[in-house]
UniProtKB/TrEMBL annotation:
Protein known as: KRR1 small subunit processome component
GO terms, molecular function: RNA binding
Feature: compositional bias, Basic residues: 232-243
Subunit structure: Monomer. Component of the ribosomal small subunit (SSU) processome.
Cell compartments where the protein resides: Nucleus, Nucleolus
Keywords noted in UniProt: Coiled coil, Developmental protein, Nucleus, Ribonucleoprotein, Ribosome biogenesis, RNA-binding, rRNA processing
Domain K Homology: 119-191
Protein function: Required for 40S ribosome biogenesis. Involved in nucleolar processing of pre-18S ribosomal RNA and ribosome assembly. Binds to RNA. Required for female germline development, cell viability during eye development and for survival of dividing cells and epithelial cells during early wing disk development.
Superkingdom per UniProt: Eukaryota
C-alpha cells in the first residue's frame, strides 16, 4: 500500500494571521449559481455626472469580469450594481458596492478600482459631527491635509492607502492594516491632536519592525506621548437673577407736591415757607462753618511728646520695694559693728 500523505492540521496555533495568504477564489470554484439577486444603489452629486458619464464604460467592463451588471441613472442621479446568474464570486457584489460609493465621493476611477482586489478594502470616515464649531472644523480638516497636501501625502506613504478629504467625509482605500491607522489619524486630528504625532509614531514603528530583537518587547518607550495643554477658556458671563414676577407695576416716585403734603409745607403761606427755608439754610451754613473751624484748629494742637528720662527714673523709683531695701541696710550696719569691735 502506498503511504498516505499527512494533511496539515487546521487546529494549529496561528502566530501571525496577517502573513497568511488564503488561496485565490477562481472562476469555477462556485459550483452552483446564486439563488437570489443582490443589488446596491447609491446617489451621486450633480457635479460628478460629467465624470461618471466618461468613465462608466470602464466600470461596466470591470464588472463584467465578475458577472455583475452596473447601471447609471442620470435622471435620478444614482448608480446601481446587481448580481446575475453569471456571477461566480458572491463577495464581489460587496466590493462593487464600495466602488460606486467611492466614485460618488469624488475618488477617481483609477484609484477606486483598486478596491476590487482581495488585499484592499475601503473606509469612509464621517468627520462632520466630530466638531460642532464650524471654524474649528475647517481648521482641523485643513490641518489633516497640510500645506500643499504634504501631511496627507505622508499618511498615504506610511499606510499604503489612498486618502481623499472631501466635504464632511474622508475616503480611504488600501490594505486593511493601513485603513486602521488612517482612521486613527483622522479621528485624533478631529479631536485636536496634531497628525504629526501619529506620523512620527508610524515612522518609528516602521524602523522598529526591522529589529528582530524588539519583536517581543513593548515599544511604548520609543513612541511619542501627547500631553494635552490646558487652554484658558473664556469665563462665562454672570447671569442676572430674575426678580420674582409681580403683575403690579412699580410704585411711582413721589413728586414735589407729594413731599410737601407729607411734611405739611403745602398748607403753609409763602412767607412761612421762605422762613423755614432760610432757617434750614442757616443751620447748614453753621454746621459747615463749625467743620471748617475744627479743621483749622487741628494745625494748632500740640503733638504728644515722648516720655523723658526723668519721668522714667521717677517711674522706676516708685516701683522700688522699700521693705527689701530696709533689710539690706540693717545687714550692712550689723557687719560694720563687727568690724569696729
Amino acid at each position: 500500500m502506498e503511504e498516505e500523505k499527512e494533511e496539515p492540521k487546521t487546529t494549529d496555533v496561528v502566530e501571525d494571521a496577517w502573513k497568511m495568504v488564503p488561496p485565490p477564489f477562481k472562476q469555477g470554484d462556485m459550483k452552483h449559481t446564486l439563488v437570489e439577486e443582490s443589488s446596491f444603489a447609491t446617489l451621486f452629486p450633480k457635479y460628478r455626472e460629467q465624470y461618471l458619464k466618461q468613465c462608466w464604460p470602464l466600470v461596466q467592463k470591470k464588472m463584467e469580469e465578475f458577472g455583475i451588471v452596473a447601471e447609471l441613472d442620470l435622471i435620478e442621479g444614482s448608480m446601481t450594481v446587481k448580481t446575475t446568474k453569471k456571477t461566480w464570486d458572491p463577495t464581489m457584489i460587496l466590493k462593487a458596492r464600495d466602488l460606486i460609493k467611492l466614485l460618488s465621493r469624488s475618488v477617481p476611477f483609477e484609484q477606486a478600482v483598486r478596491v476590487m482586489e482581495d488585499e484592499n478594502g475601503s473606509d469612509i470616515i464621517k468627520i462632520g459631527s466630530m466638531v460642532r464649531n464650524k471654524e474649528k472644523f475647517v481648521k482641523r480638516r485643513q490641518r489633516l491635509i497640510g500645506p500643499k497636501g504634504c501631511t496627507l501625502k505622508s499618511i498615504e506613504l506610511l499606510t499604503g492607502c489612498y486618502v481623499l478629504v472631501q466635504g464632511n467625509t474622508v475616503s480611504a482605500l488600501g490594505p486593511y492594516r493601513g485603513l486602521i491607522e488612517v482612521r486613527k489619524v483622522v479621528e485624533d486630528t478631529m479631536r485636536n491632536i496634531h497628525p504629526i504625532y501619529n506620523i512620527k509614531a508610524m515612522m518609528i514603528k516602521r524602523e522598529l519592525k526591522k529589529d528582530p530583537k524588539l519583536a517581543n518587547e513593548s515599544w511604548d518607550r520609543f513612541l511619542p506621548k501627547f500631553s494635552g495643554k490646558s487652554v484658558s477658556k473664556p469665563k462665562p458671563k454672570k447671569k442676572k437673577q430674575k426678580k420674582p414676577y409681580t403683575p403690579f407695576p412699580p410704585a411711582q416716585p413721589e413728586s414735589k407736591v407729594d413731599q410737601q403734603l407729607r411734611t405739611g409745607e403745602y398748607f403753609l403761606k409763602k412767607d412761612e415757607v421762605r422762613e423755614n427755608w432760610m432757617r434750614k439754610k442757616k443751620e447748614r451754613q453753621a454746621e459747615a462753618e463749625k467743620r471748617r473751624q475744627e479743621k483749622r484748629e487741628e494745625s494748632f494742637v500740640a503733638p504728644e511728646e515722648a516720655a523723658s528720662s526723668s519721668s522714667k527714673a521717677s517711674k522706676s523709683s516708685s516701683d522700688v520695694d522699700v521693705e527689701a531695701l530696709k533689710k539690706k541696710v540693717k545687714l550692712a550696719n550689723k557687719k560694720k559693728k563687727k568690724f569696729d569691735v
